[in-house]
Amino acid sequence: MTVVATPVTLTPTPGAAMTDAEVHRIRNDFPILGTEVNGTPLVYLDSGATSQNPLSVLEAEQEFYEQRNAAVHRGAHALAVDATDAYEDARAAVAGFIGARTDELVWTSNATEGINLVAYAMSNAALGRGGEAARRFSIGPGENIVVTEMEHHANLIPWQELAARTGAELRFIPIDDDGALRLERAADVIDHGTRMVAFSHASNVLGSIAPVTELVGLAQAAGALTLLDACQSVPHLPVDVKALDVDFLVFSGHKMLGPTGIGALYGRRELLNAMPPFLTGGSMITTVTMERAEYLPAPNRFEAGTQRISQAIALGAAANYLHETGMERIEDWEMRLGERLVTGLDAIAGVRVLGPAAGLPRIGLAAFDVDGVHAHDVGQFLDDKGIAVRVGHHCAQPLHRRLGLTATTRASTYLYTTTHEVDTFLEAVAQIRAFFGAR
Protein backbone atom coordinates (compact mmCIF):
# COMPACT_ATOMS: atom_id res chain seq x y z
CA MET A 1 0.00 0.00 0.00
CA THR A 2 1.43 3.37 -1.04
CA VAL A 3 0.77 6.53 0.91
CA VAL A 4 -1.91 8.70 -0.66
CA ALA A 5 -0.38 12.10 -1.38
CA THR A 6 -2.97 14.34 0.19
CA PRO A 7 -2.21 17.94 1.17
CA VAL A 8 -3.28 18.51 4.76
CA THR A 9 -3.97 21.91 6.28
CA LEU A 10 -4.84 22.47 9.92
CA THR A 11 -6.65 25.68 10.75
CA PRO A 12 -4.95 27.46 13.67
CA THR A 13 -6.94 27.33 16.88
CA PRO A 14 -7.74 30.90 17.98
CA GLY A 15 -8.06 31.80 21.61
CA ALA A 16 -7.11 34.16 24.38
CA ALA A 17 -3.63 34.19 25.84
CA MET A 18 -2.84 31.32 28.18
CA THR A 19 -2.96 31.98 31.92
CA ASP A 20 -1.69 30.15 34.98
CA ALA A 21 -5.24 29.01 35.67
CA GLU A 22 -5.44 27.34 32.26
CA VAL A 23 -1.98 25.82 32.66
CA HIS A 24 -3.06 24.29 35.97
CA ARG A 25 -5.98 22.67 34.13
CA ILE A 26 -3.64 21.44 31.38
CA ARG A 27 -1.42 19.85 34.01
CA ASN A 28 -4.26 17.50 34.95
CA ASP A 29 -3.69 15.79 31.58
CA PHE A 30 -0.11 14.87 32.57
CA PRO A 31 -0.05 12.19 35.30
CA ILE A 32 3.70 12.45 35.97
CA LEU A 33 3.45 16.12 36.96
CA GLY A 34 1.76 15.06 40.19
CA THR A 35 4.92 13.24 41.26
CA GLU A 36 6.86 14.22 44.37
CA VAL A 37 10.68 14.26 44.50
CA ASN A 38 12.40 14.23 47.88
CA GLY A 39 9.06 14.95 49.50
CA THR A 40 8.32 18.06 47.43
CA PRO A 41 6.21 18.51 44.29
CA LEU A 42 8.16 17.89 41.09
CA VAL A 43 9.14 21.05 39.21
CA TYR A 44 9.93 19.72 35.75
CA LEU A 45 12.13 22.16 33.84
CA ASP A 46 13.79 19.73 31.43
CA SER A 47 11.28 19.67 28.57
CA GLY A 48 14.01 20.78 26.16
CA ALA A 49 15.50 17.31 26.63
CA THR A 50 12.27 15.28 26.85
CA SER A 51 8.72 16.49 27.31
CA GLN A 52 6.05 14.73 29.35
CA ASN A 53 3.07 12.89 27.85
CA PRO A 54 -0.63 13.73 28.21
CA LEU A 55 -3.17 10.98 28.80
CA SER A 56 -4.43 11.18 25.20
CA VAL A 57 -0.98 10.20 23.93
CA LEU A 58 -0.57 7.38 26.43
CA GLU A 59 -4.04 6.09 25.63
CA ALA A 60 -3.49 6.27 21.85
CA GLU A 61 -0.52 3.90 22.06
CA GLN A 62 -2.26 1.58 24.48
CA GLU A 63 -5.42 1.51 22.34
CA PHE A 64 -3.39 0.44 19.30
CA TYR A 65 -1.98 -2.58 21.09
CA GLU A 66 -5.33 -3.48 22.63
CA GLN A 67 -7.46 -3.15 19.49
CA ARG A 68 -5.40 -2.69 16.28
CA ASN A 69 -2.06 -4.46 16.68
CA ALA A 70 -0.99 -5.76 13.26
CA ALA A 71 1.69 -5.13 10.65
CA VAL A 72 1.02 -2.15 8.37
CA HIS A 73 1.23 -2.06 4.57
CA ARG A 74 1.49 -5.86 4.49
CA GLY A 75 -1.63 -7.78 5.44
CA ALA A 76 -4.96 -7.87 3.61
CA HIS A 77 -6.98 -8.91 6.65
CA ALA A 78 -9.25 -6.46 8.45
CA LEU A 79 -6.98 -5.88 11.44
CA ALA A 80 -3.99 -5.06 9.22
CA VAL A 81 -6.09 -2.63 7.19
CA ASP A 82 -7.31 -0.96 10.38
CA ALA A 83 -3.73 -0.68 11.68
CA THR A 84 -2.53 0.77 8.38
CA ASP A 85 -5.32 3.35 8.35
CA ALA A 86 -4.45 4.45 11.90
CA TYR A 87 -0.76 4.63 11.00
CA GLU A 88 -1.37 6.78 7.93
CA ASP A 89 -3.94 8.93 9.74
CA ALA A 90 -1.14 9.74 12.20
CA ARG A 91 1.14 10.68 9.30
CA ALA A 92 -1.54 13.02 7.98
CA ALA A 93 -1.96 14.62 11.41
CA VAL A 94 1.77 15.23 11.89
CA ALA A 95 2.28 16.38 8.28
CA GLY A 96 -0.61 18.80 8.63
CA PHE A 97 0.82 20.07 11.90
CA ILE A 98 3.86 21.43 10.02
CA GLY A 99 2.05 22.34 6.77
CA ALA A 100 3.39 19.42 4.71
CA ARG A 101 1.83 16.90 2.34
CA THR A 102 1.44 13.35 3.61
CA ASP A 103 3.97 12.05 1.08
CA GLU A 104 6.54 14.57 2.32
CA LEU A 105 6.77 13.17 5.86
CA VAL A 106 9.09 10.22 6.54
CA TRP A 107 8.92 8.45 9.88
CA THR A 108 12.31 8.09 11.59
CA SER A 109 13.47 7.03 15.05
CA ASN A 110 14.32 10.63 15.92
CA ALA A 111 15.69 13.82 14.39
CA THR A 112 19.23 12.44 14.49
CA GLU A 113 18.24 9.59 12.20
CA GLY A 114 16.55 12.05 9.86
CA ILE A 115 19.74 14.11 9.50
CA ASN A 116 21.79 10.96 8.97
CA LEU A 117 19.28 9.79 6.35
CA VAL A 118 19.88 12.92 4.27
CA ALA A 119 23.65 12.84 4.80
CA TYR A 120 23.94 9.17 3.80
CA ALA A 121 21.67 9.70 0.80
CA MET A 122 24.10 12.39 -0.34
CA SER A 123 27.09 10.09 0.01
CA ASN A 124 25.20 7.32 -1.80
CA ALA A 125 24.53 9.79 -4.60
CA ALA A 126 28.26 10.60 -4.66
CA LEU A 127 28.84 6.88 -5.34
CA GLY A 128 26.50 7.06 -8.33
CA ARG A 129 23.50 5.48 -6.65
CA GLY A 130 20.10 6.81 -7.71
CA GLY A 131 21.05 7.61 -11.28
CA GLU A 132 20.61 10.94 -13.00
CA ALA A 133 17.80 12.08 -10.69
CA ALA A 134 20.10 11.86 -7.67
CA ARG A 135 22.98 13.84 -9.14
CA ARG A 136 21.93 17.04 -7.41
CA PHE A 137 22.65 15.33 -4.07
CA SER A 138 26.15 14.24 -5.06
CA ILE A 139 29.01 15.95 -3.25
CA GLY A 140 32.78 15.65 -3.42
CA PRO A 141 36.15 17.43 -3.35
CA GLY A 142 35.99 21.15 -4.07
CA GLU A 143 32.45 21.38 -2.64
CA ASN A 144 31.31 22.13 0.89
CA ILE A 145 28.70 21.69 3.60
CA VAL A 146 27.82 24.63 5.87
CA VAL A 147 26.61 24.47 9.48
CA THR A 148 26.77 27.01 12.34
CA GLU A 149 28.98 27.14 15.41
CA MET A 150 25.97 26.70 17.69
CA GLU A 151 24.76 23.34 16.36
CA HIS A 152 23.71 20.36 18.44
CA HIS A 153 26.07 17.45 17.80
CA ALA A 154 23.29 15.70 15.89
CA ASN A 155 23.46 18.44 13.26
CA LEU A 156 27.25 18.53 13.18
CA ILE A 157 28.72 15.02 13.35
CA PRO A 158 26.70 13.55 10.43
CA TRP A 159 28.05 16.36 8.24
CA GLN A 160 31.59 15.80 9.54
CA GLU A 161 31.24 12.17 8.51
CA LEU A 162 29.78 13.07 5.12
CA ALA A 163 32.76 15.36 4.48
CA ALA A 164 35.15 12.58 5.52
CA ARG A 165 33.46 10.04 3.22
CA THR A 166 33.31 12.28 0.18
CA GLY A 167 36.29 14.65 0.42
CA ALA A 168 34.02 17.69 0.73
CA GLU A 169 34.85 20.57 3.09
CA LEU A 170 32.85 21.29 6.24
CA ARG A 171 32.46 24.98 7.01
CA PHE A 172 30.67 26.86 9.76
CA ILE A 173 29.12 30.27 10.30
CA PRO A 174 30.66 31.64 13.51
CA ILE A 175 28.99 33.22 16.53
CA ASP A 176 30.11 36.30 18.45
CA ASP A 177 31.10 36.54 22.12
CA ASP A 178 27.44 36.76 23.15
CA GLY A 179 26.47 33.68 21.16
CA ALA A 180 24.70 35.57 18.35
CA LEU A 181 25.13 34.21 14.84
CA ARG A 182 27.45 36.39 12.76
CA LEU A 183 25.13 36.66 9.82
CA GLU A 184 27.47 39.06 8.02
CA ARG A 185 29.95 36.18 7.72
CA ALA A 186 27.39 33.81 6.22
CA ALA A 187 27.72 35.33 2.75
CA ASP A 188 31.45 34.54 2.81
CA VAL A 189 30.98 30.99 4.06
CA ILE A 190 28.14 30.03 1.68
CA ASP A 191 29.31 30.08 -1.94
CA HIS A 192 28.68 28.32 -5.24
CA GLY A 193 30.53 25.25 -3.97
CA THR A 194 28.05 24.82 -1.12
CA ARG A 195 25.79 21.79 -1.53
CA MET A 196 24.02 21.83 1.86
CA VAL A 197 23.32 24.45 4.53
CA ALA A 198 22.15 22.80 7.78
CA PHE A 199 21.22 24.81 10.86
CA SER A 200 19.01 24.83 13.95
CA HIS A 201 15.75 26.75 13.96
CA ALA A 202 16.08 27.42 17.72
CA SER A 203 19.21 26.81 19.78
CA ASN A 204 18.87 24.22 22.53
CA VAL A 205 21.45 26.18 24.57
CA LEU A 206 20.98 29.84 23.72
CA GLY A 207 17.22 29.84 23.16
CA SER A 208 17.78 32.11 20.15
CA ILE A 209 15.76 31.80 16.95
CA ALA A 210 17.69 31.58 13.69
CA PRO A 211 17.25 34.07 10.80
CA VAL A 212 15.75 31.38 8.58
CA THR A 213 14.71 33.66 5.72
CA GLU A 214 18.18 35.15 5.36
CA LEU A 215 20.04 31.82 5.54
CA VAL A 216 17.64 30.07 3.15
CA GLY A 217 17.98 33.00 0.73
CA LEU A 218 21.78 32.74 0.75
CA ALA A 219 21.61 28.97 0.23
CA GLN A 220 19.17 29.23 -2.64
CA ALA A 221 21.27 31.92 -4.32
CA ALA A 222 24.22 29.52 -4.18
CA GLY A 223 22.17 26.59 -5.48
CA ALA A 224 22.49 24.73 -2.17
CA LEU A 225 19.99 22.57 -0.33
CA THR A 226 18.81 23.47 3.19
CA LEU A 227 18.07 21.33 6.24
CA LEU A 228 16.48 22.79 9.36
CA ASP A 229 16.90 21.12 12.75
CA ALA A 230 13.50 21.95 14.24
CA CYS A 231 13.73 19.90 17.44
CA GLN A 232 13.35 23.00 19.60
CA SER A 233 10.88 24.82 17.37
CA VAL A 234 8.21 22.37 16.18
CA PRO A 235 7.12 21.64 19.79
CA HIS A 236 7.08 25.30 20.81
CA LEU A 237 6.40 27.56 17.82
CA PRO A 238 3.96 27.52 14.90
CA VAL A 239 5.98 25.94 12.07
CA ASP A 240 4.96 25.95 8.41
CA VAL A 241 7.51 24.22 6.20
CA LYS A 242 6.21 25.90 3.05
CA ALA A 243 6.50 29.37 4.58
CA LEU A 244 10.01 28.58 5.84
CA ASP A 245 10.89 27.40 2.30
CA VAL A 246 13.45 24.83 3.52
CA ASP A 247 14.20 21.65 1.59
CA PHE A 248 14.38 19.35 4.62
CA LEU A 249 13.31 19.64 8.26
CA VAL A 250 13.67 17.20 11.16
CA PHE A 251 12.14 16.90 14.62
CA SER A 252 11.71 14.33 17.41
CA GLY A 253 8.46 13.11 18.94
CA HIS A 254 9.66 12.91 22.53
CA LYS A 255 10.21 16.67 22.63
CA MET A 256 6.60 17.42 21.56
CA LEU A 257 4.53 15.34 24.02
CA GLY A 258 5.05 12.13 22.02
CA PRO A 259 6.85 8.89 22.88
CA THR A 260 10.51 8.10 22.40
CA GLY A 261 11.61 6.14 19.34
CA ILE A 262 9.72 8.25 16.80
CA GLY A 263 10.62 11.35 14.82
CA ALA A 264 10.09 12.71 11.35
CA LEU A 265 11.91 14.02 8.32
CA TYR A 266 10.12 16.49 6.09
CA GLY A 267 11.41 16.78 2.54
CA ARG A 268 10.08 18.39 -0.59
CA ARG A 269 8.30 15.68 -2.56
CA GLU A 270 10.45 16.01 -5.67
CA LEU A 271 13.64 15.81 -3.59
CA LEU A 272 12.60 12.77 -1.60
CA ASN A 273 11.63 10.91 -4.76
CA ALA A 274 15.03 11.67 -6.31
CA MET A 275 17.12 10.68 -3.28
CA PRO A 276 18.73 7.24 -3.15
CA PRO A 277 17.55 5.25 -0.10
CA PHE A 278 19.54 5.09 3.12
CA LEU A 279 18.23 1.90 4.77
CA THR A 280 17.05 -0.94 2.55
CA GLY A 281 15.02 -4.10 2.98
CA GLY A 282 11.33 -4.96 3.04
CA SER A 283 8.38 -2.57 2.73
CA MET A 284 10.20 0.02 0.62
CA ILE A 285 10.41 -1.83 -2.70
CA THR A 286 8.27 -2.47 -5.77
CA THR A 287 10.20 -5.20 -7.60
CA VAL A 288 13.12 -7.36 -6.44
CA THR A 289 15.19 -9.84 -8.45
CA MET A 290 18.37 -11.61 -7.40
CA GLU A 291 20.33 -8.85 -9.14
CA ARG A 292 18.55 -5.60 -8.32
CA ALA A 293 15.62 -3.82 -6.70
CA GLU A 294 13.30 -0.95 -7.55
CA TYR A 295 12.01 1.34 -4.82
CA LEU A 296 8.65 2.83 -3.93
CA PRO A 297 8.04 6.58 -4.04
CA ALA A 298 8.55 8.61 -0.87
CA PRO A 299 7.92 8.31 1.96
CA ASN A 300 7.82 4.50 1.78
CA ARG A 301 11.23 4.29 0.07
CA PHE A 302 12.82 5.51 3.33
CA GLU A 303 10.83 3.30 5.72
CA ALA A 304 12.47 -0.10 5.49
CA GLY A 305 11.38 -2.94 7.72
CA THR A 306 8.71 -3.12 10.39
CA GLN A 307 7.72 0.37 11.33
CA ARG A 308 7.28 2.30 14.60
CA ILE A 309 3.54 1.89 14.40
CA SER A 310 2.30 2.54 17.92
CA GLN A 311 4.79 5.39 18.37
CA ALA A 312 3.65 7.07 15.15
CA ILE A 313 0.01 6.81 16.23
CA ALA A 314 0.89 8.32 19.63
CA LEU A 315 2.81 11.13 17.93
CA GLY A 316 -0.27 11.87 15.84
CA ALA A 317 -2.23 12.20 19.09
CA ALA A 318 0.45 14.56 20.43
CA ALA A 319 0.23 16.76 17.34
CA ASN A 320 -3.55 16.92 17.73
CA TYR A 321 -3.22 17.86 21.42
CA LEU A 322 -0.84 20.73 20.59
CA HIS A 323 -3.00 21.90 17.72
CA GLU A 324 -6.13 21.94 19.86
CA THR A 325 -4.30 23.96 22.52
CA GLY A 326 -3.06 26.39 19.86
CA MET A 327 0.57 26.76 18.86
CA GLU A 328 0.40 30.56 18.77
CA ARG A 329 -0.85 30.52 22.36
CA ILE A 330 1.86 28.06 23.41
CA GLU A 331 4.53 30.20 21.77
CA ASP A 332 3.29 33.31 23.58
CA TRP A 333 3.15 31.54 26.96
CA GLU A 334 6.63 30.07 26.66
CA MET A 335 8.17 33.33 25.49
CA ARG A 336 6.71 34.97 28.59
CA LEU A 337 8.19 32.20 30.71
CA GLY A 338 11.53 32.60 28.92
CA GLU A 339 11.50 36.31 29.67
CA ARG A 340 10.70 35.56 33.33
CA LEU A 341 13.60 33.11 33.48
CA VAL A 342 16.14 35.50 31.97
CA THR A 343 15.01 38.53 33.97
CA GLY A 344 15.09 36.54 37.20
CA LEU A 345 18.48 34.94 36.54
CA ASP A 346 19.99 38.28 35.52
CA ALA A 347 19.01 39.66 38.91
CA ILE A 348 21.04 36.99 40.78
CA ALA A 349 24.64 37.96 41.51
CA GLY A 350 27.23 35.66 39.98
CA VAL A 351 24.91 34.15 37.37
CA ARG A 352 25.66 34.46 33.65
CA VAL A 353 22.80 33.73 31.25
CA LEU A 354 23.63 32.57 27.73
CA GLY A 355 21.77 33.78 24.67
CA PRO A 356 19.58 36.79 23.92
CA ALA A 357 19.24 39.43 26.63
CA ALA A 358 15.94 40.08 28.38
CA GLY A 359 13.48 41.73 26.02
CA LEU A 360 14.77 39.93 22.92
CA PRO A 361 12.98 36.96 21.32
CA ARG A 362 13.84 33.52 22.69
CA ILE A 363 12.08 30.24 23.25
CA GLY A 364 11.19 29.27 26.81
CA LEU A 365 14.58 28.09 28.00
CA ALA A 366 17.66 29.55 29.63
CA ALA A 367 21.12 28.04 30.04
CA PHE A 368 23.30 29.68 32.66
CA ASP A 369 26.60 29.49 34.52
CA VAL A 370 26.94 30.05 38.28
CA ASP A 371 30.29 31.62 39.09
CA GLY A 372 32.37 29.34 41.30
CA VAL A 373 29.96 26.37 41.19
CA HIS A 374 30.12 23.55 38.66
CA ALA A 375 26.96 22.92 36.65
CA HIS A 376 26.67 19.37 38.00
CA ASP A 377 26.65 20.70 41.57
CA VAL A 378 24.02 23.24 40.56
CA GLY A 379 21.89 20.46 39.13
CA GLN A 380 22.26 18.31 42.25
CA PHE A 381 21.33 21.22 44.52
CA LEU A 382 18.18 21.86 42.47
CA ASP A 383 17.31 18.15 42.29
CA ASP A 384 17.43 17.96 46.09
CA LYS A 385 14.63 20.54 46.02
CA GLY A 386 12.60 18.56 43.46
CA ILE A 387 13.58 20.76 40.51
CA ALA A 388 14.58 18.85 37.36
CA VAL A 389 16.96 20.68 35.01
CA ARG A 390 19.61 19.65 32.46
CA VAL A 391 23.33 19.99 33.18
CA GLY A 392 26.36 19.51 30.96
CA HIS A 393 27.26 20.72 27.48
CA HIS A 394 23.81 19.84 26.09
CA CYS A 395 25.39 18.06 23.09
CA ALA A 396 26.91 21.37 21.99
CA GLN A 397 30.57 21.24 22.99
CA PRO A 398 31.86 23.61 20.26
CA LEU A 399 29.33 26.25 21.32
CA HIS A 400 30.30 26.01 24.98
CA ARG A 401 33.99 26.06 24.11
CA ARG A 402 33.49 29.22 22.02
CA LEU A 403 31.82 30.90 25.00
CA GLY A 404 34.60 29.85 27.38
CA LEU A 405 32.57 27.23 29.24
CA THR A 406 32.66 23.46 29.66
CA ALA A 407 29.13 23.03 31.03
CA THR A 408 26.02 24.97 31.94
CA THR A 409 22.70 24.39 33.67
CA ARG A 410 19.58 24.66 31.52
CA ALA A 411 16.00 25.24 32.59
CA SER A 412 13.42 24.65 29.86
CA THR A 413 9.67 25.14 29.97
CA TYR A 414 6.60 23.92 28.09
CA LEU A 415 2.88 24.50 27.92
CA TYR A 416 2.42 22.80 31.31
CA THR A 417 4.96 25.01 33.16
CA THR A 418 3.53 27.54 35.60
CA THR A 419 4.95 30.92 36.61
CA HIS A 420 5.07 29.61 40.19
CA GLU A 421 7.42 26.83 39.07
CA VAL A 422 9.71 29.37 37.40
CA ASP A 423 9.71 31.48 40.57
CA THR A 424 10.43 28.41 42.72
CA PHE A 425 13.39 27.64 40.48
CA LEU A 426 14.69 31.23 40.66
CA GLU A 427 14.43 31.27 44.45
CA ALA A 428 16.50 28.09 44.58
CA VAL A 429 19.17 29.39 42.16
CA ALA A 430 19.55 32.50 44.34
CA GLN A 431 20.67 30.23 47.23
CA ILE A 432 23.32 28.26 45.34
CA ARG A 433 26.45 30.39 45.68
CA ALA A 434 25.97 30.89 49.39
CA PHE A 435 25.32 27.17 49.90
CA PHE A 436 28.59 26.24 48.20
CA GLY A 437 30.54 29.12 49.74
CA ALA A 438 31.34 30.64 46.33
CA ARG A 439 32.90 34.08 46.42
UniProtKB/TrEMBL annotation:
Keywords: Pyridoxal phosphate, Transferase
Gene source species: Arthrobacter echini
Family recorded in the similarity comment: Belongs to the class-V pyridoxal-phosphate-dependent aminotransferase family. Csd subfamily.
UniProt-listed Enzyme Commission number(s): 2.8.1.7
Location of the Aminotransferase class V domain: 43-425
Keyword Transferase: yes
Molecular functions (GO terms): cysteine desulfurase activity; pyridoxal phosphate binding
Cofactors: pyridoxal 5'-phosphate
PANTHER family noted in UniProt: CYSTEINE DESULFURASE, CYSTEINE DESULFURASE 1, CHLOROPLASTIC
Catalytic activity annotation: (sulfur carrier)-H + L-cysteine = (sulfur carrier)-SH + L-alanine
Protein name: Cysteine desulfurase
Function: Catalyzes the removal of elemental sulfur and selenium atoms from L-cysteine, L-cystine, L-selenocysteine, and L-selenocystine to produce L-alanine.
Lineage: Bacteria, Bacillati, Actinomycetota, Actinomycetes, Micrococcales
Residues annotated as signal peptide: none
One example of a Gene Ontology biological process annotation: cysteine metabolic process
